[in-house]
Amino acid sequence: MQIANYPRIKLGEFPTPLQEMPHLTKALGGPRLLIKRDDMSGLALGGNKTRKLEFLVADAKKKGADVIVTGAGLQSNWSTQVIAAGLKCGMKSVICSTGPKDKYRPDLYNGNILLHYVMGTEVRVFPVEFSELYGHVFNDVAEELRKKGHNPYIMMYAGSTPIGQLGYINAMLEMYNQATAKETTIDYVVTGCGSGGTTAGLILGAAAFNTGIKVVGMAVSPGDKAALVAGRVNETADFLNLKLPKAGPSDIAMFTNYVGEGYGAINKELVETINLVARTEGIFLDPVYTGKTMMGLIDLIKKGYFKKSDTVVFLHTGGQANLYPFADPIVALSESKTPSWTKSPWGMW
Predict the structure, then answer these.
(1) Alpha-carbon span 46 to 290, nearest angstrom
(2) Helix (H/G/I), strand (E/B), else coil: 272
(3) Where is the active site (predicted)?
(4) How far is Cα 149 from Cα 26, in angstroms, rounded to an integer?
(5) CATH of the domain at 55
(6) What pLDDT score does 347 carry?
(7) Residue 43 vs residues 16, 48, 324: alpha-carbon distances, Å
(8) Count of helices and strands (H, E) across the chain
(9) What is d(CA 52, CA 284) in angstroms, rounded to the nearest whole number?
(10) Residue 212 φ/ψ, nearest 5 degrees
(11) Is the peptide bond before 249 cis (omega within 30 degrees of 0)?
């Protein structure tokens, strides 16, 4: 597999740390827990998208693009990373976000919304589903930019495309090599799953490099994530001409019962999980992705899914900026009070 043949621009600081979590391991009674700190990737506030963007931005530059068109929800970590990556490489971004109404502006700028503002980004808000963003909004905006003389590059599905997934094929090898240097064998890697690219890349890396590591996905939003990830695995394997068996949904270890009331919704168990990790390891998780992923991991440990002798790596994908918009429900639920909201008032993520 010749990933080195694909253009890549250095945006992050790799390898990211692979650290022990001894206090959380003790609190839960095993298995041995490690954490892969992709929240320390070195671009903007860090996160898993850095690895994808090293390949995606390189592809954009190769094609002569001068502006990136992409987006997600208003508080999107993906958008923050894209904007920062573009600026580092001399490109502006036009961010198309879902929101409660056209031209929506929040009452309070915080979290990623504030970061987008500070970076001087053009953010356009559309009261549509994600499928419409991907289906026509990005293309409509890109066509408008072409008419103004620009050469836009559209980034789809939060980077969960074959080019973007190269980053997490590499990440699996990086983790495997770090563990080998520590004379450690990794049995499982646990990751959150939204758009599916990180999970798919890890699965492909585990298979292609014959690591023996099992990848467990935790869905953070509704939908058939096993089918989504299987499709991404097959698409990228074909893209790379990898001679691997076709993946089906039944081949993907995916847990969908920790989504709660939906994407970006918060509850007491989630807040307790965030607090536990902060108070045992001094590590901050967010309520949208990593908090739900850790909540699922802890529940699986309690149910005996892992052996006490296993070594399990939790992939920290970043997103801590999203702690701040959730301050009210985090504090209220921590104190067993009723929060003013549990679903984000600014709409979809």
Answers:
(1) 13
(2) helix
(3) 76
(4) 59
(5) 3.40.50.1100
(6) 65
(7) 12, 10, 19
(8) 12, 10
(9) 23
(10) 75, 5
(11) no
* Catalytic residue flag (residue 76): yes
> What is the arithmetic mean of pLDDT over 109-118?
95
Rounded distance, CA 125 to CA 117, Å?
Answer: 13
Let me know whether 214 and 80 are in one domain.
no
* Model pLDDT, residue 349: 44
Taking residues 99-112, what's their average pLDDT?
84
The answer to whether residues 41 and 103 belong to one domain is no
Q: Which residue matches tokens 């585990």?
A: 206
Q: 73 forms bridges with which residues in the sheet?
A: 98
What is this structure's pTM?
A: 0.97
The C-alpha atoms of residue 140 and residue 135 are separated, in whole angstroms, by: 10
b/e sequence 59-81, b meaning 16+ C-beta within 10 Å: bbbeeebbbbbbbbbbbbbbbbb
Instruction: Give the span between the Cα atoms of 340 and 298, in whole angstroms.
Output: 27
Task: Give me the domain span that covers residue 54.
Answer: 49-158
**Domain assignment present for 54:** yes
Axis crossing angle, helix 197-208 with helix 162-181, rounded to the nearest 10: 60
How many whole angstroms separate alpha carbon 292 and alpha carbon 277? 12
Q: Quick one: what percent of the chain has pLDDT higher than 70?
A: 99
26-46, pLDDT tens digit by residue? 999 989 999 999 999 999 999
- 121 CB-near residues (< 8 Å, 6+ apart): 79, 83, 92, 93, 94, 95
